[in-house]
Amino acid sequence: MAGRRQFDEKQALEQVLDVFWRQGYGATSMADLASATGVQRGSLYHAYRDKEALFLRVFRDYESAFLADAAARLAQPDLRQALLDFFDFTIESITLGTPARGCLSTRTATDTRAATEPIRAALRGMLDGLEAVLTRRLSEDDATGRLAVPPVEAARVLVTATRGNVVIESVYEDPDRLRAAARTLVDMIVRPV
Q: What is the distance between the alpha carbons of residues 66 and 98, in angstroms, rounded to a whole number?
C-alpha cells in the first residue's frame, strides 16, 4: 500500500538509535542503518529522506525519554537527594553496556561530521530542556533558601557537569569517581538544612 510503512517502525527506530549511539553520527552510513534494521536502504530514504532526517527523528525520541527520566529522578522530595538521584541517572545512562555506550548528545556535539545547524539546534534544544527541568526543580519551595546560587545558574552548572562527566568517564571508566564528584558539586550548590 502506498504511504504505509512495510516495516515495524518502532523497532527500526530503536535499532537506528542504537547504531548512532554506538558508532556516532559521522561514522554511521545509511548502509549501516539498513543492515541493523533489516530495512532496505531505499525504504529508509523513502520514509525519512536522508541520514540527518533519520537522526533527528530518533534524537527527538531519545530527548523526550531522557528528559522524562531526568524529571522522574528529580521528583525526590529532598532536594539534595533529588540531585544525587539525577546524577545517578545520568551516570547510569553513560556507563550502560560493554563497552560503556557513553552519551549520545555529547558524542554528537563533538562529531565534526554532525555540525549541521539542524543537528546543533536539536542538541541545544535537549540541553535547554534539561536546564529547564533542573530549573523547575531548583525553584520549588523546598529549594528556597538552600541554593548557593540562583536556580537558573545552578541548573546551568549541573548540566555542564553532566557533559564533563562523559569525558571523565571515557578516560577513567570509573562511575564511583563521577558519583564522588557529583556529591561534592551538590554539596557546593545546596546548603545544609
A: 20
